[in-house]
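Module 6 notes. Inverse folding takes a fixed backbone as the condition and produces residue identities as the prediction. Think of it as a translation problem where the source language is geometry and the target language is the twenty amino acids. Below is one complete input and output pair. Work through it position by position during the lab.
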């Protein structure tokens, strides 16, 4: 038996899955001030009457990191940068930072030494501001850790007890601003996330649940909860990832679909191309920061079933605020859910209260309640349709999207709109009709996110960079370095090496059983010539365990 729990903006949903059958569902209201209680409340409701010893796996999809960042509740961090020549950190939109001299070039060679007295001076400034968390990031330091390591050592002596994170240990990928942003967010969220993970583990132990616990990442893959502590920002947008995995689980394999997840607070949009979710080539965008967090290409729109209905100058607007549940569900004001209740599009809530909500709106619009309700629903549908059309323009910029169109020899359109989330059954058919597409609202659509979490398998990416002239290799994801001796290494040899390193990393992360499913998704070789001779090669290989579903779900 598998458990999936998804913390949404309005409700926290949970499912108990046996093979490919959903045997029980549970819902509790989401309390964003205490997500742990929401998760445990849903879990307790779910397992009543079941033998918890039969549970083999628990997967969580949580908005913890997203909320911390959006609400400005992250821990303060001193960002220390070693940008080298040719860059201006003020252009990176990273906030206040401390700049150090020193430089490493693109091949990992030191071209400008550190100034140790300057480092100590910066440490004194950080101490004066009573900052106890420090992120140290140097340009190209993923290819030579010496500068970050040395700055970390000096800071550790000057700032006793400070928590210091080095950029090459967070991400070894190219793009200095994104690596800096990813490191900054990792330090800012790690302590609170660690506290949450520890409390969740202890609570499960108290409930005699000994099954392994996983967290859903932004790329739709799972990671053991204890291992995720070192990379908390990987879990941002896990809710939107859960909806995509839920659609994969509830629709036929290989379909191309626009995913529309309509919740109480937001509507999330995503795209699946021939059964493969579209990934963002630029990584997850967190507020205004681009990161190295691998994530699906998604968009979150601030409109949902519980969004506030506003009337001004005889015109209806909906959202972006949510002031609690719908009036028909005990809330304080009119919402789209009330409008749908009046129109007979849903049966949830108190019909009399929904009528009152629409009477209030109708009074301001000088019309009948049903007409007012229709105006509310029309606004919501038009808003979602316009956002889907706008999102297609963004999706078209993704390399994977363009390749799909070249291979398929057709222009992608919204042919199939799959709706999940509580608001999907009444609204998605209307959205699909406006887009000239086929609507698909699968069974269990309201708990699709929890199902997606329950049956998602692990993902893992490894980017290997080899410089045979220098006799070195680097694993981008963790800054791991090593030696190579063959100056004429072939792409095939590099692929074999990448597979081996990925298997080792998967084992360290507790997901070694999936390493055999890794596939090469990128390979490039560049010969270095001096005079008339090849003196070495630069080889880059990317190996991935892609997003997918557990075999037990597909088998049935």
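Target side of the pair, the amino acids:
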């Amino acid at each position: 038996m598998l458990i999936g729990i998804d913390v949404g903006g309005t409700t926290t949903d949970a499912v108990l899955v046996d093979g490919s059958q959903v045997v029980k569902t549970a819902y509790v209201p989401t309390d964003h001030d205490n997500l742990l209680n929401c998760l445990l409340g849903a879990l307790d409701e779910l397992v009543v009457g079941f033998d918890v010893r039969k549970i083999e796996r628990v997967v969580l999809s949580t908005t913890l990191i997203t909320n911390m960042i959006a609400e400005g509740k992250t821990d303060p961090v001193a960002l220390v940068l070693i940008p080298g020549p040719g860059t201006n950190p003020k252009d990176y939109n990273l906030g206040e930072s401390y700049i150090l001299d020193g430089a490493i070039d693109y091949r990992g060679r030191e071209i400008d030494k550190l100034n140790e007295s300057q480092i100590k001076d910066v440490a004194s400034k950080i101490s004066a501001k009573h900052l106890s968390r420090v992120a140290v990031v140097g340009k190209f330091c993923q290819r030579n850790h010496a500068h970050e390591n040395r700055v970390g050592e000096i800071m550790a002596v000057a700032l006793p007890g400070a928590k210091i994170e080095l950029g090459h240990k967070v991400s070894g990928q190219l793009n200095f601003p994104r690596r800096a942003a990813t490191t900054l967010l990792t330090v800012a969220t790690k302590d609170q996330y660690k506290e949450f993970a520890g409390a969740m583990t202890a609570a499960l132990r108290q409930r005699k649940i000994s099954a392994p616990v996983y967290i859903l990442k932004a790329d739709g893959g799972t990671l053991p909860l204890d291992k995720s502590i070192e990379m908390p920002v990987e879990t941002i947008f896990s809710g939107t990832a859960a909806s995509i995995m839920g659609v994969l689980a509830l629709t036929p394999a290989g379909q191309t679909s626009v995913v529309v997840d309509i919740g109480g607070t937001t509507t999330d949009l995503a795209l699946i191309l021939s059964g493969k979710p579209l990934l963002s080539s630029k990584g997850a965008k967190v507020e205004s920061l681009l990161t190295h967090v691998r994530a699906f290409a998604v968009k979150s729109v601030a409109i949902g079933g519980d969004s506030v209905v506003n009337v001004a100058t005889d015109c209806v607007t909906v959202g972006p605020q949510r002031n609690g549940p719908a009036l028909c569900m005990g809330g304080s004001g009119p919402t789209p859910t009330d409008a749908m209740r009046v129109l007979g599009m849903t049966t949830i809530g108190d019909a009399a209260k929904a009528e009152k909500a629409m009477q209030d709106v109708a009074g301001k619009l000088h019309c009948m309640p049903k007409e007012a309700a229709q105006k509310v629903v029309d606004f919501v549908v038009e808003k979602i349709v316009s956002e889907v059309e706008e999102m297609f323009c963004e999706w078209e910029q993704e390399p994977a999207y363009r390749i799909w169109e070249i291979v398929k020899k057709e222009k992608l359109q919204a042919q199939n709109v799959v709706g999940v989330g509580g608001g999907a059954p009444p609204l998605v058919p209307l959205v699909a009709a406006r887009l000239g597409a086929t609507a698909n609202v699968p069974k269990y659509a309201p708990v699709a996110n929890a199902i997606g979490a329950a049956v998602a398998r692990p993902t893992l990416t490894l980017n290997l960079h080899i410089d045979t002239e220098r006799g070195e290799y680097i694993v981008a994801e963790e800054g791991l370095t090593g030696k190579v001796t063959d100056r004429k290494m072939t792409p095939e040899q590099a692929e074999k090496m990448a597979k081996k390193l990925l298997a080792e990393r998967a084992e360290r992360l507790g997901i070694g059983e999936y390493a055999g499913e890794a596939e090469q998704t990128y390979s490039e070789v560049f010969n270095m010539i001096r005079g008339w001779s090849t003196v070495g090669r630069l080889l880059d290989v990317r190996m991935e365990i892609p997003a997918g579903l557990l075999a037990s779900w597909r088998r049935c």
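Reference fact for the lab report: Residues 253-446 form a domain with the Nucleotidyltransferase; domain 5 fold (CATH 3.30.420.40).
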